[in-house]
């Protein structure tokens, strides 16, 4: 299973978690960390397939890492 790491950061001005991965490519945001994880997993799978990084239907692992200094939740 191919793994992609996405670093999530909190933007206090916009009040959202955001992150990106250049390899997929993927950039997304969400108001909560859990929503960000779910959104990244959904979009990550689709982007990996569309960009030929995995075969259609082949699962990928999207690993979300909180940026150091980000809030706990």
Average pLDDT confidence is 94
- The arrangement of helices and strands along the chain is EEEHE
**Largest pleated sheet:** 4 strands, mixed
Low-confidence stretches: none
- The name CATH uses for the topology is TTHA1013/TTHA0281-like
Provide the structure class.
alpha+beta
Question: How many β-strands, per DSSP?
Answer: 4
> What gap, in angstroms, lies between the N and C termini?
28 Å
Looking at CATH, the homologous superfamily is TTHA1013-like
Radius of gyration: 12 Å
Number of contiguous helices:
1
**Beta content:** 35-45%
CATH level 1 class label: Alpha Beta
Can I get a quick summary?
The protein is α+β, with helices and mostly antiparallel strands. Helix content is 25%, strand content 38%.
């Amino acid at each position: 299973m191919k793994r992609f790491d996405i670093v999530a950061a909190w933007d206090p001005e916009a009040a959202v978690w955001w992150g990106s991965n250049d390899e997929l490519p993927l950039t997304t945001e969400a108001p909560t960390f859990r929503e960000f994880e779910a959104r990244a997993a959904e979009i990550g799978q689709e982007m990996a397939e569309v960009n030929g990084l995995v075969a259609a239907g082949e699962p990928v692992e999207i690993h979300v890492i909180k940026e150091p200094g980000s809030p706990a939740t």
